[in-house]
Design a protein that fits this description.
By secondary structure, the chain is an alpha/beta fold. It is 39% helix and 23% strand. It starts with 11 loop residues before the first strand and ends with a helix.
């Protein structure tokens, strides 16, 4: 299948997926990302924490990266914000996301959609990522 193009820019369509912890993106929108990848949409995934409070951070990191690669993510960025404390780091998360958007998106890609956490989620980190 040919590359999807945006109507106005002629650039390849891209999406940004943002999760609080390893496994949030895979569980939250993995099937959608896989479908988009099969349609040649560029996918950038950003994970805000190591998820160390929910298990072994190294194992979670490796499992998440492997799963996101299988789903078709083109780039995976793992940040190291404090797990369970993201509500204290919203400005820093915004700064990081702005830097990523400015420096990590290929010049031939236009991000057309963002997938992220829900604002009514019970987990405080998920709500903080939504807010950022």
């Amino acid at each position: 299948m040919k590359s999807k193009k945006t109507i106005f820019s002629g650039k390849k369509t891209g999406v940004l997926a943002i999760g609080a912890h390893p496994d949030d993106i895979e569980l939250g929108c993995g099937a959608t990302l896989s479908s988009l990848a099969h349609n040649d949409v560029y996918i950038l995934s950003v994970i805000m924490t190591s998820g160390g409070c929910g298990g072994n951070a190294i194992v979670r990191y490796e499992e998440s990266r492997e799963a996101l690669k299988i789903l078709g993510c083109n780039e995976i960025i793992n940040l190291d914000f404090n797990d369970t404390k993201l509500y204290l780091q919203i400005k820093e998360m915004i700064d990081s996301l702005e830097r990523i958007l400015a420096t990590e998106i290929p010049s031939d890609v236009e991000i057309m959609r963002v997938y992220t956490m829900h604002n009514a989620d019970r987990h405080q980190d998920h709500v903080a990522v939504y807010q950022a």
